[in-house]
Each structure stands twice: as structure tokens, then as C-alpha cells.
Amino acid sequence: MELVAIIIIIGLVLWVEMLIYDKYALKGIRYYAKVNKTEVYEGDTVELTEIVENRSALPLPWIKTELAASKWLAFYRKDSAAQTVGGDVNFIPGVFSLKAKNRCVRTRRIKCLKRGVYTFENTSINGTDIMGLVNNSFTVPVNITITVLPTASEKKDAILSFNEPIGEIMVRRFINEDPFMISGSKEYSGREPLNRINWGYTAIHNKLMVFNNEYSTSRNVLVVMNMQRAGVFPITCASMGDIEAFIKLTVAVLYDCNKQGCKCAFATNGSKASGVASDIIVTAEQYESALRLLADIEESCVTEFTEYCSNINFGLFTDVYFITSYIDEGIIAIADKMKSAGVNAVFYTTGDVPDDIDYCCIHTRKFSYRINNDNLKEGI
């Protein structure tokens, strides 16, 4: 009888414990998450801070959180448990043990492997009682967005420097000289205004000398990315390796333009039905805004490239860079039409270059984004 009584008492205690934990345990749980930076560049590290707080009077021996994250956000191993892979999404678990009226703060480091806009939408929280007999769960919204800006490709990836020749082009200049472009002095002819007299050289040569001015013009560059795959119908997007190469090359050209004070812009037939285009980039702030547009470009294409180009006013630019996985007759026809209007065309391509093409063509190197977390360095 005593044994039966003990069993009954233990059963009642467990039953009461289960009722209490089932009803009140997770009601006192609060979860918060934040990142130290919401905008970074590819390869940078972000710190994600998670706070799990137990506001109830019940101890919680086992709390598990599971955060869904893109596979391009690599969590360092020593900061997290084993990751569960689910296609393009990894599920990052976290295990906590909390006393009553207690909290736990954990910081995880994340390496951003690829450009894009990534969102942590919610976290799944599971909790159990002391005996492990009750298992409740709920979802907490997180709503954290990290923008990973693309980085420029390196020179070895076939970037054409602005200091390198790009073939013969028509000289563009204004009728009037540029008063700020001084290249020396010349003898006064009587047609120059008096405020152009160079009194220093006049004293040296003992005759009236005036400033010699050069002609100048502004250089406007447009980068056009072709997101269409060659020879596929219906219209299909190019491979991810090509797209990432295009974006990195675009960043490099825009950076060189902005650094040298050259106006520039980019346009692409991908991501949306109407494509994506930036405003004219002049300042560093406008350059960063263009990087945000490039970071948010999706890997999709629904508009045929030559059709898209027919809606672009190439006459606003002096140089156009075509970045494409192929060069066909339609694209060459567009370049020929531009050439007749005095606009210079340069091709970057990851595909084959036609033998008879009369333009500057640079074969670009493809980029690989096959990530294996087991082989990543720095303890990831």
C-alpha cells in the first residue's frame, strides 16, 4: 500500500507539474534579436545578438530557438550549434537554460558571403519542463534585414582601366575652349579678351601673351547588364555565376567612374519586367544608392535584351559598356547604331567572342559561389 501511495503521489506531482508548465511556462518567455550593422559589404562580418528572457517564476531547463537564415549568411561554428540545411535556407539552433526571473544573452558572428538583401523573419521557440514531459512551442517575429552590398571585381577579372586604350573613337569637343583647362600660353592675337592675358609670360617674352586653353567635354558612361541566357526560349535568366560576375564588373566600372569624376549609370533587363536602372551617378552618396539597387537585383529575366535596349536613350552617354554572356547579331546591330551616333561601345562577355566583331571585347572570368561550410576558414 505504501508503494502504491508513493506512486500515486509522484503521479499527482508530475501531473500538477505538467499542468503548470503547460499553462504558464512559455508565457514568461521573451525573445529579442538585433544586429550591430544592417548594411555591410560582401565578406564582412555581422554580429547577431539574441536575448532570451524568462519572466516567470518557473525555471526552464531547456529552451531551444531555431532561426531561419539564408545559406549565404554563414554562422561561425563556435558561436552556434550544428546547422540544418534546407535548400537555400539554413536553420540555426540555439539552446538555453534559464532560471526563474533570469535572462541569457548570446552573440553570434555571421559572415556575409554574397550580395543580397536578407531578412530574419521569425524565430521558432521550443520549451520543456523539468522532466521533459511537456513540449510547447511558439513563433516570435524578428524582422531584421541585412543588406549585403556587392564588391568590385579585381583587375585579374578583366576590368578595363580608363587609362587603357579602347580603340579609335570620334573626338568630341565643344566649339569654345574651356577657360579652366590651361595648358600654357600663346601670343596675343587681338581676339582674346584682356582678362586672358598672362602677365607673367608677357614679362618674360617682352610681348603680350595670353593663356592657352584646351577643349574639354564631359564623359558619361552607361553600363548595361544583359541577364538573358543565350539561345533559350522562352526567355531564361543567365546562370548565377554569370550574374554575380556581371554585378561585380558593374561595381568596378561605376567605382572607377565615380573616382575620376565621370558621370555614370547602369541598367539591366533583369530582376523586374521593366528592368532596373539607376539615376545618373555623380556623388559618393549616389554611388552607394546604386550599390543598394545592385544588391537587391533578383536572379530573373523576362525581357528580351534587344527589346529592352530599344527603350534606352544611348545618346545621353559617350561610352556604353555591354556586360553579357553572349554577343549575337542583334547586340552588334545596337552597337553599330550607337557608333554611327558617335557613342563608343565596349563588350564584356563570359561567352564566346565573334571573330568578325569590330569592337573592343574583353572576356571575363566566371565567379563560383559554391559554398562548403566544412571548408571555410576562420572557424566558420
Protein traits:
alpha/beta; Immunoglobulin-like; Rossmann fold; 3 domains; 6-stranded mixed beta sheet; elongated; disordered C terminus
What's the layout of helices and strands?
Blueprint: H1 2-25, E1 29-35, E2 39-41, E3 45-54, E4 60-70, E5 73-75, E6 84-86, E7 89-98, E8 102-112, E9 116-128, E10 135-149, E11 182-187, H2 199-205, E12 209-213, E13 220-225, H3 240-259, E14 263-268, E15 276-277, H4 284-295, H5 305-309, E16 319-324, H6 329-340, E17 344-349, E18 360-363
Parallel strand pairs: 2-10, 13-14, 13-16, 16-17, 17-18
Antiparallel strand pairs: 1-3, 3-8, 4-7, 4-9, 5-8, 6-7, 9-10, 11-12, 14-15
Helix pairs in contact: 3-4
What does it look like?
It is a single chain. With 380 residues, this protein is α/β, with parallel strands linked by helices. The chain has three domains: 23-149, Immunoglobulin-like (Sandwich), CATH 2.60.40.10; 155-167 and 217-363, 3-Layer(aba) Sandwich (Rossmann fold); 182-213, no CATH class. 21% of the residues lie in helices and 33% in strands. It has six helices and 18 strands. Strands 2-10-9-4-7-6 form a six-stranded mixed sheet. Strand 16 (319-324), helix 6 and strand 17 form a beta-alpha-beta unit. Helix 3 (240-259) runs antiparallel to helix 4 (284-295).
